[in-house]
Design a protein that fits this description.
Length: 297
């Protein structure tokens, strides 16, 4: 089993609990440093020492956007960390990531609020209102989702063949997780570099990219997650042929697709798609749990 051993070695080096703890401390340090640097850039921009027309360099409140971006990077790592352990928690991490993206967007938009009696006529004010309501709803939905995950009764493995199939499925998930770490690091570096170069070389194109900064990396990231989810769905057929498991895994794929589609639209439709994705995933899990409890042993 040399291939399995190599996967275990790489898994321990990239996704062990010790690595997770070190990564948590590293990201926290980077987040604090980036926050202070962002505040310094805002100070220099407001005093005329530099001249950059940017929504993120006008108001000190907007500086919170930067450390939140690094917290999102750590959430991406946690998503990969939980992939081999539990599909349900892995999907839950997807919901946490999209919620933090909405929260991060609020930190960017709060600097552009127009405090007037015409609140509902301002695009920024309306979007901020939609995002505030969406983030609260997502917080509650994720709470309900994890409660359903915790109460789920895991059926006992029936026979040696199913036990072997389960171990093979875990090995596959570990292999996918190991491959995702360098893939997503490379994707993050590529999308960041591409955005910076486009901003420097073509001011207008860069500003267009800046307006869509919330989707930088994460649009492509959720495309990769769809591929991973479909692969796990197909692989699960070797582990189980029970209808409710297939429906749950298929529903999770659809939920991820809805999140991915949300990056292609703005305004209330974006918020509706995000909420719809999480509601759909929650309902799929609720029905799955009821089906599992009522199924004959």
């Amino acid at each position: 089993m040399p291939t399995v051993n190599r996967i275990d070695v790489l898994y321990d080096r990239l996704l062990s609990s010790d690595v997770k703890q070190r990564g948590e401390r590293l990201i926290l340090g980077i987040a604090i440093t980036s926050y202070l640097v962002h505040l310094g850039l805002i100070l220099m921009n407001r005093n005329g020492w530099i001249d950059i027309q940017s929504e993120l360099l006008g108001n000190p409140i907007a500086a919170t956007y930067t450390p939140f971006s690094f917290i999102l990077v750590y959430e991406v790592y946690l998503l990969i960390f939980f992939l081999p352990k539990s599909i349900s928690y892995y999907i839950g991490k997807q919901y946490e990531i999209i919620t933090l993206i909405v929260i991060r967007r609020m930190f960017k938009d709060i600097a552009n609020l127009e405090l007037s009696s015409d609140w509902f006529r301002s695009t920024y004010d309306l979007q901020f209102t939609f995002d505030a309501a969406t983030s609260l709803a997502l917080f509650m939905l994720i709470h309900l989702y994890y409660r359903r995950v915790a109460e789920r009764e895991v059926p006992e493995v029936k026979g040696a063949h199913q036990e072997v199939s389960k171990q093979h499925f875990i090995i596959l998930k570990r292999a996918i997780a190991v491959l995702l770490v360098p893939l997503l690091v490379g994707l993050a570096l590529y999308t960041l570099t591409d955005w910076i170069l486009s901003f420097v070389s073509d001011r207008q194109h860069g500003m267009d990219a800046f307006r869509n900064i919330n989707s930088v990396f994460f649009d492509e990231f959720f495309t990769i997650l769809i591929i991973v989810d479909v692969l796990l769905l197909l692989a699960s057929f070797f582990y189980t042929d029970e209808f409710h498991h297939i429906m749950r895994n298929s529903g999770f794929v659809i939920s991820t697709m809805l999140i991915k589609v949300s990056f292609s639209v703005d305004g209330p439709v974006n918020n509706a798609l995000i909420l719809g994705a999480v509601v759909f995933g929650l309902l799929i899990l609720v029905v799955h749990n009821r089906f599992e409890r009522s199924s004959p042993s």
